[in-house]
Write a structure and sequence with these properties.
By secondary structure, this protein is an alpha/beta fold. It contains 18 helices and 26 strands. The longest helix is centred in the C-terminal third of the chain and has 21 residues.
Length: 608
């Protein structure tokens, strides 16, 4: 949620801020703004809309000699998108940008009104800005003012701040919400993530909770609440600016779909030793799963759908009971957690607020925790007992594709690893399954190459107002993710149902203008799935069937059909999901939607 960037150095600050914000728009794009030091005072430019709207609106040539500033691209939480609600917020003395939510903002706002302050916006951020201004007037020192503010606010926040009397310094602090400090030569930066800074530097340091960064052109000092200087580890990003570009693809989503074959192998290969998976180098000893009585998979959205496949793999291969929980519900239902349980958190960004809260609850209860994440140094990666990196590479499109793909692959590998040492499968059986999983890599690109065929199918369904995905077993899990992708980016109302459950009420919605996409790849239930398809055909639904090549199907069962290779049932999700990802993508393109930045969504959900 929301993207923050700040700069101090010799470059034109507005150029750096606009460049950085353009790389962070996937975090939010309801409105945008920047603050700069000009003629010994702070000037702010902001607008509803996207960065391109601000570039059209503002003559940045008048700021060409300014070298210090902060910027923000917003995903609205408090207050609708508008010029006034846009960040930065502040006064004549201070300006700040904020990512997160201030939970007690209403009480702060009421107090500030009593102190004589007036408010223009509906945001929680303006309450923090007024509070900071108040303490700055009282203390006449930025650090003392920031420390007083920290005593008063509750919630999640990453703050970038400027003070009118200190034009050579930026200040930054974080609590739960992500923020890092970029380190250059005679220049320094703040940013929500490294994508904003790769054009300028790969060196960075991560702020921990409530650490205050004092950022000057010549260097950065980080202190704690007691004013003590903290020695920070300097990290180097392992990807470059080109990785964050489209490289000739019309959209990041399509690029990332095409990156799935490489990501699949990059995730699995490091864990392969001989003919078997081995996670002992990642602090998972061979006997780890022998004492696990239950796994609680906790995740949100796409990651949760990968977790559902993980449940299937762990129960099928390792015979370990698995629950899958929506992260936003997990801690509020007071979950039953036993000493031999494992809480497994899945998050692409490693900053998902609800998942992070679930992780902390498990740790408070003394339960073993494991995390599957894609971002080194993220909050979840730093706090989990065991961390497994997916090696998917940078994912920029808001609608996740390759993250789901590699999360699912890693869960399958982990389940096979567990089955080997729990002896729920023989060594020869495990080796055979490992080979089957790796064989998927030979079929990913051929599925991507079906894009013209998929586009044709999308053109036939693109005008539907509502659509159903149905399937049984893991086909239903794929249907859930497929439905989410379609509604995320095309705005077609879509629902996923277990094929056999449809007739228990929801089939009343099936008519001749409500098409159905039936995923029928599981040999053990394919006949039953075909019977369910016939039920929707009898209600005059237009049906696209996605099936194995060797599955016979009479022409009266479908309107359109798309064939997949004849692989083992348990790996069919890896080929089926590529087809439905492409289906969602081309539906959105044909409908004229903004594929990479769908309305109301943000890539990294760092607020509850």
């Amino acid at each position: 949620m929301c993207g923050i960037v700040g700069y101090i150095g010799n470059r034109r600050a507005c150029d750096v801020l606009i460049s950085g914000l353009s790389k962070l728009e996937y975090r939010g794009y309801d409105s945008v703004g920047i603050s700069l030091f000009r003629d010994d005072h702070i000037v702010t430019e902001k607008t509803k809309g996207r960065i391109a709207d601000m570039v059209k609106k503002v003559d940045f040539e008048i700021y060409k000699d300014i070298h210090v500033g902060i910027g923000h691209t917003r995903w609205a939480t408090h207050g609708e998108p508008s010029d006034i609600n846009s960040h930065p917020h502040g006064s004549a003395r201070i300006s700040l940008v904020h990512n997160g939510i201030i939970e007690n903002y209403a009480a702060i706002k009421e107090r500030m009104i009593r102190k004589g302050y007036t408010f223009e916006s509906e945001t929680d951020t303006e309450a923090v800005a007024k509070l900071l201004d108040y303490y700055y007037v009282q203390k006449e020192d930025p650090i003392k003012a920031i420390l007083k503010v920290l005593e008063k606010i509750r919630g999640s926040y990453a703050l970038g701040m400027m003070f009118n009397d200190h034009p050579d310094t930026l200040y930054a602090i974080r609590h739960d919400s992500p923020l890092l400090i970029g380190l250059g030569e005679d220049e320094n930066f703040i940013a929500s993530d490294m994508t904003a800074l790769l054009k300028y530097t790969k060196r960075y340091m991560l702020l921990e909770h409530d650490e205050i960064a004092i950022i000057k052109q010549s260097g950065v000092v980080v202190i704690n609440k007691d004013g003590e200087v903290i020695e920070k580890i300097i990290s180097v990003a392992d990807w470059d600016e080109q990785t964050a570009e489209k490289e000739g693809f019309p959209h990041f989503m399509l690029k990332e779909i095409h990156e799935q074959p490489k990501a699949f192998l990059k995730t699995l290969n490091p864990r392969l030793k001989g003919d078997l998976f081995d996670f002992s180098d990642e602090k998972i000893p061979h006997t780890f799963f022998n004492n696990i009585t239950k796994i609680h998979v906790v995740a949100c959205g796409t990651a949760m759908h990968a977790g559902m496949l993980g449940k299937y793999y762990f129960e099928k291969f390792a015979r370990i009971s698995v629950d899958v929980d929506v992260a936003s519900e997990f801690r509020y239902r007071d979950p039953l957690l036993n000493p031999n349980d494992l809480v497994l958190i899945i998050s692409q960004s490693g900053e998902t607020a609800d998942s992070l809260a679930a992780l902390r609850l498990a740790k408070q209860r003394g339960i073993k925790t494991m995390a599957i994440v894609n971002v080194v140094g993220s909050s979840i990666a730093r706090e989990a007992d065991i961390v497994l990196m997916t090696h998917a590479g940078l994912e920029i499109a808001v609608a996740s594709t390759k993250a789901y793909f590699v999360q699912s692959a890693l869960l399958a590998a982990l389940a096979l690893y567990a089955s080997q040492y729990k002896e729920t499968l023989s060594i020869e059986e495990v080796k055979t399954h490992v080979k089957t999983l790796f064989d998927v890599s030979n079929h990913i690109q051929p599925m991507i190459d079906k894009k013209d065929e998929v586009q044709r199918h999308a053109s036939l369904f693109m005008n539907a107002r509502s659509l159903f995905f149905i399937g049984r077993g893991v086909d239903f899990h794929v249907a859930l993710e497929s439905s989410l992708k379609l509604k995320e980016i095309s705005y077609v109302h879509s629902e996923a149902y277990p094929a056999g459950e449809l007739k228990h009420g929801t089939i009343s919605l099936i008519t001749d203008d409500v098409p159905v996409i039936a995923i029928a790849t599981q040999d053990n239930v394919v006949e039953k799935t075909i019977s369910n398809i016939k039920e929707v055909k009898a209600r005059k639904a237009k049906v696209l069937v996605i099936k194995k090549e060797n599955t016979p199907l009479s022409s009266d069962v479908y309107d359109e059909v798309l064939n997949l290779p004849n692989l083992e049932d348990w790996v069919m999700p890896f080929v089926a999901i590529i087809i439905t990802q492409l289906f969602a993508y081309y539906t959105a393109v044909l409908r004229g939607c903004d594929v990479d930045k769908p309305r109301n969504l943000a890539k990294s959900v760092t607020v509850e």
